[in-house]
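Problem 3 from the worked examples.
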Amino acid sequence: MAVERSEPVPEDIEARLSARGIVLPAAASPAANYVPWVTSLGHVFIAGQAPIVDGRYPWTGRVGADVSLVDAQHAARVCGLNLLAQVHAAIDGDWERLVRCVRLCGYVSGAPGFFDFPKVVDGCSDLMVEALGDAGRHARSAIGAAGLRFDVPVIVDAVFEVR
């Protein structure tokens, strides 16, 4: 099996974010006994990021009951912003070190009968491509959960390749 060689991100990420009006929040501190990211063998593994905005959770509850699909997609996008903030911290603010987004895994708290977990996580996936272009295309899993910490509707973790 051939191993795909990663290419550098083709354009200036800071300019790309600015042109799209994307503002990254400060990287959040961990909510428990773990670190927000770990660098190993050219990759940054980022702990699950919740949809936190200014230290609060604008969306709570289960998708399909308390949270609409559209609001859950917005929440997943916020998870993506928080992931980008963490990778930015992990690379000491030097976007030139970022090669690509390798993988996302989204966990969605769904009401009984709700099964559109991939549609929720699309909010984060779409942001990665918007922010990083082709370097934002990634492998992904979208998993349903009975409930998530702080009663949030979605949490997303990620792996990025870095130099």
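Problem 4, a separate protein:
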Amino acid sequence: MEFSPFNNVVKLCIQAMVMEEQNKSEEAGKLFKQGWNEATDNTEKFLAAYYLARSQKTSLKRLEWFEIALQYALKSNDNTAKSAFYFLYLKIAECYEELSDLQKAKEYNEMAMSVKDKILDKGPFYHGTKANLQIGDLLTAGGDSNYKSELKMNHIYFTALVNGAGLAAALAKGDGTERVYIVEPTGIFENDPNLTDKKFPGNLTRSYRSEAPLKIIGEATDWSKPGHEELQKFRGKLENNKGEIIN
């Protein structure tokens, strides 16, 4: 599964979170359960189980569903799910603490610490833009944010999801053609803190950032451009987003 806001299970989870924000817990629970019933692979099942865990009213039921989420994340062998190990281990540890099983809580906290800040993703990596660039060019930090024009970015951002880079290209400012470049980090990089462990567990968009330049080593042409209606909905969500960007 390539994580996308247009994936059906992801859309159901997003709709359910909106219901939660409106204090409609029963409707939210039905949508999360629908996501679980419609999940077709291990990664989708991990995601749906995670949200079912969040919505449970007792520590024991939360633990049950978080453990199911972890089982599917482990089975998926997918970097999308692997990025959530740290968060899942912490959530399971919290459940054991609530259940007064301090030994199990300690074990899962130690497992969480063993994977904290580890990036298992080997790429390939992509950067979406409307700029016309050449192989060998360097992408550097310091550009204007696509989401807050007054903000100069201290990092250069990239992703391991080619369609995610395509979405970024479609949202980028300018009138040029959307381009998705294959890039190579020239220095250390980290999970994008604006997306990691926020509304979704882990770094499901496989989004990263670096203060060091990215070297363009090729261009990807086999990616799916979002439809006009989907793109407009996504732009609307960004415009209404009041959250602060971690820069």
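Solution to problem 4. Residues 1 and 43 are 6 Å apart (CA to CA). The first strand starts at residue 125 and ends at 129.
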